[in-house]
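Entry for the shared binder. Reason: the reviewer on the internal report wants the predicted structure included alongside the sequence.
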Amino acid sequence: MHRYRFLLSLQWVILTLVAIALIPTMIRLGFWQQHRYEERTARNGLVSTALHAEPVPVERLTSPGHTVTRAEKYRTVTATGTFDTAKEVVVRRRTSSDGQVGFHVLTPLVLTDGKVLLVNRGWIPANGAQTAFPKIPAPPAGPTTVTGRLMADETTAASGIKNVDGLPDRQIMLINSAEEARRLGARVLGGYIQQTAPEPKGGSPEQISDPGSEDAPLNYAYMLQWWLFAAAVPVGWWFLVRREIRDREEAAAQPQPEESEPAAV
């Protein structure tokens, strides 16, 4: 066992402790990536199911005060009513498909039964000072049937967008049906929709693209990568031990230079 005494040196003790600490850390990171993979896969499944479901009347899924669930989010819904542009607002700091900063246009749609549906008609550029209400292309006049994806109310916790006070007139940070119900003094359906039809004249506002899918396979690859790293640590440690032993044995086998005799006086 004297061949392994070098493992008791400070350098090798530190190296061994680091290797021992790395293994469970990498295993835990692998399990975290597995959780992310499963979470994203489930989310992609829900979104795909919702996007491919048959359109239904909006009031079949939501009502005033209703909280849109994960299963209801992105469902295609239809509604018939009249746009109330006098009470239209814009949502600040929203980006277009190519990354430009502008506004989302939120227009109340007064339904035939008197309730109000919030319709996100799409994105427009900030064509002036951020403090001024922008020029907005008008929606169709009179009774209109719209189609869109049902969305949950936005919150700071879910979006990371801070809701601030003192904004310019008719500008908001988050789309929230409860806040809009208080502002409008109306029965507002829970959540809102991202309009997909009819398409706006001239392509403005720019309609919001579908959410697409999250890259779940990437998390799966990271999961395998972390677990392979964990398995490689003891293999690498043993490789270094064997190399150290070989180097020491080769050094010991080298002939030592003979000491020269002192010259005669």
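Summary line for the report: The chain is about 35% helix and 20% strand.
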